[in-house]
Amino acid sequence: MNQEDYAPETDAEDDAEATRRDAGETESSRASRGWWDRNADEYQSEHGAFLGDDRFVWGPEGLDEADAALLGPADSLKGKDVLEIGAGAAQCSRWLAAQGARPVALDLSHRQLQHALRIGGDVPLVEADAGRLPFRDGSFDLACSAYGAVPFVADPVNVMREVRRVLRPGGRWVFSVTHPIRWAFPDEPGPEGLSVSASYFDRTPYVEQDERGRAVYVEHHRTVGDRVRDVVAGGFRLLDLVEPEWPEWNSQEWGGWSPLRGNLIPGTAIFVCERD
User: Fold this and answer.
1) Which among 180, 151, 169, 163 is positioned nearest to 233, based on CA atoms?
2) Strand pairing partners for 175?
């Protein structure tokens, strides 16, 4: 599929105003769908080489599931039904399929899933909202999300409950998000990103809005404690909280992630959870 097959909307965020204000579930979902549809081409062009076509990486640090085994040893994935939420171009799902798993890649963005089609493979693709998963109860053994959905939803507990619903008893749910401590610092990769500039405890969402006040991008802040409580309220047990350290081999900058900051403060938090 060529990029000409789909013409994204005008870049509404070009003149967007950044602010902190409340944003509900519907507004957040609509903004996320529009933003990722407009920016999927640039995102895949800029980060596609790092992500690979069939690599499972948990975040900008480059922690690989092949090494971390947060979903379980690679040889234990064979035959498992796995749901990837916020799959983007389904890179993680392709890696899972290569291990013998049966992944399904779900994303809110039509354009991101078009990139999954462009790359190819036999992974089933589903366009849907993480808060309303279109699957029967107990459909999957595992669920995962690498920076997908969870940071962008106004009601993370609802997402947790939906994930629990579609998992079988004993199923594992692993998701990564921007480390909550990062919200206290400017989103800059250089020295200016090392000084606290905001309250870590301010949960007001970050919103970019157009000239009519409509949100074109929304990201929701939760403290570490909030995230733990969300996991528990969603019906999971927290098995581990992984904070990847910045590896020596990784010299790239990715937005506010960089070797400078990564060697001093965590940039990613990975929550490893299990359904009773």
Assistant:
1) 163
2) 145, 271
Cα distances (Å, whole numbers) of residue 70 to 73, 102, 168, 169, 272: 8, 17, 18, 18, 7
How far is residue 117's CA from residue 217's CA, in Å, rounded to a whole number?
25
Q: Model-level pTM? A: 0.94
DSSP string computed for 144-195: EEES-SGGG-S-HHHHHHHHHHHEEEEEEEEEEEE-GGGGGS-S-SSGGGGS
Residues of the chain with pLDDT under 70: 1-14
Check residue 87 and report its DSSP letter. -
Q: What's the angle, vertex CA 46, arms to CA 191 and CA 49, rounded to 5?
A: 110
- Give the burial class of 196: count Cβ atoms within 10 A of its Cβ; 0-12 exposed, 13-18 middle, 19 or more buried: exposed
What secondary structure letter does DSSP report for 270? E
Q: What is the pLDDT of residue 6?
A: 28
Contact 55, 64 (CB under 8 A): yes
Which amino acid is present at 146?
A
Strand pairing report for 81-85 and 140-146: parallel
For residues 153 and 131, the answer to whether their CB atoms sit within 8 Å is yes
The pLDDT assigned to 13 comes to 53
- Alpha-carbon distance of 100 to 170, in angstroms, equals 20
Q: Which two tokens stand for residue 242?
A: 């992984």
At residue 78, what are phi and psi to the nearest 5 degrees? Answer: -60, 125
Q: Cβ contacts of residue 12 below 8 Å, gap of 6+?
A: 34, 38, 210, 216
Give me the pLDDT at residue 231, please. Answer: 98
Q: What is the largest CA-CA distance in the chain?
A: 52
Phi, psi of 187 (to 5 degrees): -85, 65
